[in-house]
User: Which sequence fits this backbone?
């Protein structure tokens, strides 16, 4: 992972940090329809998609901020039971919740406080009914 740093003199540089052991380094999201997944996750979370590996027709790499972070793959018969729960850090939770609804998803749990000054979270379902957690450190935006 490359990290850009700015020194006290205003100079910038890029350092490479190895992945941290015992942290999530890759994820895969089964979806019913790749086009629908791109139409939902692209605008809602700003993800971009690209063909990936030998299964390019049914498997797309997902990038966030220019970094490949995971994949979506066509698996219409995949069970929807909860397994590992993944939370995506967002800057403007209300905007992401609104985009979720706008692009065919459902807000399952609206903004909720974690407690102990640890931020806020929410739960959404994508158009296929699959769960996704959202979290933020930012206070609620003014209504």
Assistant:
């Amino acid at each position: 992972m490359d990290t850009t740093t700015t020194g006290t003199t205003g100079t910038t540089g890029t350092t490479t940090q190895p992945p941290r052991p015992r942290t999530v380094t890759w994820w895969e999201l089964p979806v019913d329809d790749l086009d629908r997944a791109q139409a939902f996750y692209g605008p809602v979370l700003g993800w971009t998609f690209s063909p990936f590996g030998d299964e390019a027709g049914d498997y797309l790499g997902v990038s966030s901020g220019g970094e490949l972070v995971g994949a979506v793959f066509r698996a219409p018969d995949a069970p929807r039971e909860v397994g590992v729960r993944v939370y995506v850090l967002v800057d403007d939770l209300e905007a992401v919740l609104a985009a979720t609804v706008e692009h065919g998803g459902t807000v399952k749990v609206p903004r909720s406080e974690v407690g102990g000054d640890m931020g806020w979270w929410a739960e959404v379902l994508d158009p296929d009914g699959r769960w996704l957690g959202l979290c933020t450190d930012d206070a609620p935006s003014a209504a």
Remarks:
- The beta strands are 2-6, 12-16, 27-31, 48-51, 59-64, 67-74, 87-89, 106-113, 120-125, 131-136.
- The helical segments are 34-45, 93-102.
